[in-house]
Write a structure and sequence with these properties.
37% of the residues lie in helices and 31% in strands. The chain is built from six helices and 19 strands. Strands 2, 3, 4, 13, 14, 15 and 18 form a seven-stranded antiparallel sheet that branches. Strands 6-7-10-9-8-11 form a six-stranded antiparallel β-barrel. It has a four-stranded antiparallel sheet with strand order 5-12-17-16, with no helix packed on it. The longest helix is centred in the first third of the chain and has 35 residues. A hairpin with a 2-residue loop joins strand 16 and strand 17. Helix 3 runs antiparallel to helix 4. The protein folds into three domains: 109 residues, conserved putative lor/sdh protein from methanococcus maripaludis s2 fold; 87 residues, Elongation Factor Tu (Ef-tu), domain 3, CATH 2.40.30; 78 residues, Orthogonal Bundle (Helix Hairpins), CATH 1.10.287. By secondary structure, it is α+β, with helices and mostly antiparallel strands. The relative contact order is 0.18.
């Protein structure tokens, strides 16, 4: 009897231990489950009534990241056509112009000799008719060679590059790359009256314009562009333009100037191939807005749509705002 009672007591103790162990395991499992749940960062991104995403930053956070905003200033810019082009190699032009000059020198010499012999013959002096005829033939041959050299330059480059007053002084700095000769081709179907000026941008430096003076229409049509070509001269080649370098040009046009706001470079961020700025919509809220950077200037970009002079944009801390925007969408632990 005592033995049976002892067995029952041991069984009851074992059952109680199992119950306690099960509860403890259940608690540990629940704790572990809760520990694996993702921690959601406090979201600063909200959706406004118009559907736009806004980023909320209190004044303390703005001070911490040194956020700065400015009101947009109105701006105007001469009407322009966007064109694409390249820096031309002045070497072939220099060679062809040199051929014209050489032909002209030979022509002047042969003409002078022919006129001298002709005058002697007419005065009955020692100048046989045969010598006069030979000198005239040389003169006529040199005249044809001079015309051919001139036509070659005009066909390839246009009449503006015909040898004349001031052309040698233009060629020397071109060959030395102190000046640069540029060809711009307008978009297909676009035409323009002779402009006075163009602003050029190298593809490697799309934020620093280079001034160029209009010279003449191109003498031929580009095989690919199939549109009007224009020649410009960069007189101060401080940017180090070299033959073959690709350029984007903005050719001035007559008419009403473009009106918009000036967006400084520090305000622009680029995401997924597009340009954006952060607009301050209230004291503590900001909205990222896409902008079109079609009109670069020395001070930034003239933006003609999507922004108003009543807007304030972020000029210091725009990239930090974008990082905060991304961070607010992340669930830590996912």
């Amino acid at each position: 009897m005592k033995k049976l009672l002892l067995i029952l007591i041991l069984l009851a103790a074992a059952a109680a231990g199992l119950v306690v162990a099960y509860k403890k395991m259940s608690q540990e499992r629940e704790t572990g489950k809760n520990g694996e749940a993702p921690v959601v960062a406090d979201s600063r991104v909200k959706r406004a009534a118009d559907g736009a995403l806004t980023l909320a930053l209190d004044a303390e956070t703005q001070n911490r990241i040194a956020l700065q905003t400015v009101p947009l200033a109105p701006a105007t810019l001469a009407r322009e056509i966007k064109a694409y082009g390249r820096v031309l190699d002045p070497g072939p032009l220099a060679v062809q112009v040199s051929d014209v000059v050489s032909a002209q020198v030979a022509l002047e010499a042969s003409k002078k000799e022919w006129l001298r012999l002709k005058r002697l013959y007419e005065n009955g002096e020692n100048a046989p008719k045969r010598a006069v005829d030979a000198a005239e033939a040389t003169f006529r041959r040199d005249e044809v060679a001079w015309d051919a050299a001139r036509i070659k330059v005009m066909t390839a480059w246009g009449a503006v590059f015909m040898p004349g007053v001031g052309l040698p002084s233009l060629l020397e700095p071109l060959v030395a790359h102190q000046h640069a000769l540029v060809r711009l081709d307008l978009p297909a179907g676009e035409t323009t009256a002779p402009p006075r000026f163009a602003r050029l941008f190298a593809l490697a430096d799309s934020e620093r314009p280079i001034g160029a003076e209009y010279l003449a229409p191109a003498a031929n049509v580009d095989a690919q562009a199939q549109s009007q070509g224009l020649l410009f001269l960069v007189k101060s080649n401080a940017g180090g333009l070299r033959p073959g370098q690709a350029l984007i040009g903005f050719v001035q046009q007559p008419g009403e100037p473009l009106h918009g706001v000036m967006v400084p470079p520090s305000a622009v961020i680029r995401v997924a191939g597009k340009a954006w700025v952060y607009v301050q919509t209230a004291d503590t809220t900001f909205t990222r807005r896409e902008v079109l950077l079609d009109h670069p200037t020395d001070a930034g970009w003239l933006v003609t749509s999507g922004l108003k002079t009543t807007d304030r944009i972020v000029v210091t801390g725009a990239q930090t705002l974008f990082s905060e925007e991304l961070k607010s969408r992340i669930q830590v632990g996912e």
